[in-house]
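This protein record is not my work; I was only asked to verify it. Where you disagree with what is written, explain briefly why. This is what I was given:
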Amino acid sequence: MKNKFIYLFWILFFIFLLFSVVLFSLFAGLDKFSFKDSLRDNIIFDIRLPRIILGIIVGGLLALSGLILQGLFRNVLVEPYTLGISGGAALGAIFASILNLKSYSYPFAFLGAIFVIIFLYFFSIKGGIFKIEELLLNGVMISFISSSLIMLVMALFNVNDLRGIIFWIMGSLEDSDWQVVKIGIFILFFGLFFSYFFWKDLNALHLGEEEAMHLGINVERTKRVLFILASFFVSFCVSSCGIIGFVGLVVPHFLRMVLSYDYRVLLVSSFLVGGTFLVFSDTIARLIIFPLELPVGVITGILGGIVFIYVLEKIDCVFKMIDIKNLICGYKNFLLKDINIKINKGEFIGIIGPNGSGKTTLLKAIAGIIKPKSGEIFLDGKPLNKMSFLDRAKKISIVSRELDIDFITVEEFVLLGRLPHYRSFQFFETRKDLEVVNQCMELVGVLRFKDRYIKELSAGERQLVYIAKALAQKPKILLLDEPTSHLDISFQIKVFNIIRRLNRDFEITIISVFHDLNLASEYCNRLILLDNGKIYKDSKPEDILNYKIIEEIYKTKVIETKNPISGKPYIFLITEERWL
């Protein structure tokens, strides 16, 4: 966790926000009652209080289930109702009305949701593996089928209280009572507590199932348990309040933008913000056309839609770190042409290609060292060529190759990385500068060399010092140009293990030039293959590192296999005598 105190501040702020909204909802519109009016007390304690508590529970559970499902599917557009559970619950409630068992609509709705969960669970298991893709497709199909069946039942049967059913389907907290609230409180606290047993699993799944498995996560067990847990949350919410949309979609999006991808803080924050959002929406639904009342699902849909459009507008600034459009740049005798690349926050990208293909030229263009002849490079949504050198240096840091440095100590060299953060007329480094430098040196393992001259260190140790200096700039993007080309395999692995840790733990976007294809395959989640100044292919290592592409681009014979431990592509070279 990057900064415990910042996260603690946000959680306390969310608690304060929830408390404020609860007070507003509890007393809004009661000014016409005197303090001694018994009717006022009945409204507060018998009608509004259980409704507000149920709103906190349902909003919190919907946000939690949305967060868990998005982490499980690795798809930020998945929400609790994507899987068709709401459709099953709605069908159950309608059948209760057809059978004149309206008082049992809650259990009927819950049973309908449970039936869908069981169906999805068993039909998504193929060969003992819980197939996430099939689960999503089956869920979407069940949603369409349920909607059609609901319309069919309403058309064919004389359903009593049809308006009430439609109102319930649109979502409402109107029928809250203390018995449902007590059940909801138990489910909420049990669910939130149980969810925290899987925060490590969810963090690891952010890297993909294969990477999570390599980190010691029982992926199959995690997928099944989390699916059942999230589905159980949704079943209770729909059976007690109907279909309330957008809470489970918008809240996780908002929190990832404000906080991070760390589920240790996201889980409790989702509960707090989801509950706050639903209680606020329900209060608006009660007051906006008083004395009549709107379904709360209408308000969450409107507010959630507006927020979601805003999120989509801002998503590029949060996740898309670099956007290269129609770039042409280079030198008199060599040009990069028609370069279009979008690089998202937290990616680990390798630039590969034969000598003279333009790898270093592209890296220098991203760093702003080479000016484009045409096209543009955007950094955090702003044109790179319109940013000051100081602003660039605060966001982009370059790990140098071998430098010709004589009498400068390791600490003095790393302190140079703090120059972009010096205030005007600052002459000496501050205590914060020294703390940052010590942290960076400790992070890469060179703190013990702080008083030694750089020229006294080995090549591998100097490379770690260069990384420490780059980190002292506190960048969002780290650029590296063949950082291990002159190092032995021990330091190659050490350097890239540190770089991957920076990428994973601090969400620093990494862009590195590679000549070693196997290193690129092992550490990168995306490769950009250049050939003759153009992008030949931009995709996952598995899609690029095959013998056909390598032989075509590098003009040499190779054998393609897989690393037996990581499962990543591995390229073997073949000498001329072997393939002639």
